[in-house]
Amino acid sequence: MSQKPYFITTSIAYVNSVPHIGFAMELVQADALARYHRLLGEKVFFETGTDEHGIKIYRTAADLNLTPQEMVDKNAQRFKDLTGALNITNDYFVRTTDPAHKRGAQKIWQKMADNGDIYKGTYEGLYCVGCEAYIVEKDLVDGMCAIHKKPPERIKEDNYFFRLSKYSAQIRDLIESDRLRIEPEARKNEILNIIGEGLPDVSFSRPKAMLPWGVEVPNDPTQVMYVWCDALSNYITGIGYEEENETFKTFWPANVHLIGKDILRFHAGVWIGMLLSAGLQPPKNIYVHGFITSGGQKMSKSIGNVVDPFGYVETYGADPVRYYLLREIPTTDDGDFNEERFLSVYGSDLANSFGNLVYRVFSMNEKYFGGKIVKVAGCPSLFPVEEVITQYQKGMSEFDVKAAVESVLRLIAAGNEHVELSKPWVLAKSDTEKLSEVMYQLLEIVRIIGVLMTPFLPGSCEKLLAQYGEKGRIQDWARAVSWGQLEEGAQLVKGEILFPRIEEPKGESKAA
Ligand SMILES: [Zn+2]
Asked: Residue 426: CB partners within 8 Å, gap ≥ 6?
């Protein structure tokens, strides 16, 4: 049976600075989905990477007395380090300065040009360097970019334009009919509003004399591509569009582009137009997340509330950081990251509920049965496993990862409640048969919880499931999450405490 392909991408991070917690969240969300689809038995390709061209990078490098290449090499490495720190399972890391990417970007440009959709014109208007985008007068607030609070630059130059207007109606149809599904619904409506009566043509290149740092326009060495044209094409160049190899044929169109809300219009507008022009399929889904504030405020160096993902991982480990980002921040909305709340969520969900359940159940089974499973025939499930799995799968297929995580918390609560109500320590003195039944039920629910939590807490769940030996290996998802897999006589191994309690914020200076 051939495996179903699943291609998921994050946006590519702009490397004019170091990674922030918002990009960490995007990576973790995409990683949870990639891991889940692998567990389902699908053939997954998960791509992330860095966006390395544009005027902002060119100028930042000059300010730092570096060549642009030196600066992007240095910063791209920090983003690669972040994927390692967060235990991200990307299959490829694309960089827009890779020669293969550049050739792929030139190829899609050429296809668009061959199709009559690239023409020469004069652009006169405003450009916000912060956005790396042309903006119009009506979007300014007091003469400044609403996002960057800086006046845009006025430019007049001979550029190439992309005939995006030609594809407006087609793009609108794709989105309205959900052939290109945008989650959440509010973002779908937002982009349909932007498309309105039609999208305008886009200036698609800049004179090399103005911007010597970019991908050259095919057959015109005096021009470089507009940075968004170059950047968006990473989604196909990273899987081999240049040669249209097997990887490309297997994985395009993408199942999911996972992005932040600020760049939706580029992904659901310009990018879809580019694909249509080049004769390529549009992606199937665009998932849009919100922004992270810190202590209720937008993060900024001057306020001193910038959350450093590396500091948190170093202090608390990858899984607790992943957990907070997936469970505490609403998947498609804004949320807050602060250490007090972080410690509270860690303490209640991980240390006291999940970790404690695992530790108690294995400790009791060790004490009463020497770590062996003593099955009672036909031992029923007392837990709402099927209901939880339905909620879980709904969350994972509708981009509500938080709901999926929360569904598993129900099983953890039910497991803890079962310990309290059945009192194994009393049964140990009076009713060994009943005790063996209770222990079986607890061990089985903990195993299923471990399977379901694997996409979110991969390191901890690997340790947990290893305690079950061979039966803890997930080979078939449907079987792994169904009740009654543990066999009589199997020897389990008690592990260490998965989430040690944190009494005092340790190394606050590092994390803050
Ligand atoms: Zn701006």
From this structure: none
CATH class, domain 347-480, is: mainly alpha
Distance in Å, CA 69 to ligand 1 centroid: 24
Tokens representing 367 are 């004490």
Which of 136 and 260 is assigned the larger pLDDT? 260
Q: Which residues surround ligand 1, an ion (CB under 5 A)?
A: 128, 130-131, 145, 147-148
Distance between Cα 145 and ligand 1 center (Å) = 5
**Ligand 1 centre from 129 Cα, in Å?**
6
Angle at 48 between CA 150 and CA 6, to 5 degrees: 130
Q: What distance in Å separates the CA atoms of residue 136 and residue 262, rounded to the nearest whole number? A: 17
Structure tokens at 335: 């949320």
Q: What is the pLDDT of residue 182?
A: 98
Closest CA to 250 of 229, 267, 236, 230: 236
| Domain 5-290 classification at class level | alpha beta
Rg (the chain; Cα; Å): 26
Question: The whole model's pTM is what?
Answer: 0.95
Cα separation, 75 vs 18, in Å, equals 6
Q: Please state the domain extents for the chain.
A: 5-290, 347-480
The average confidence (pLDDT) of the chain is 94
Q: Give me the count of residues in the chain.
A: 512
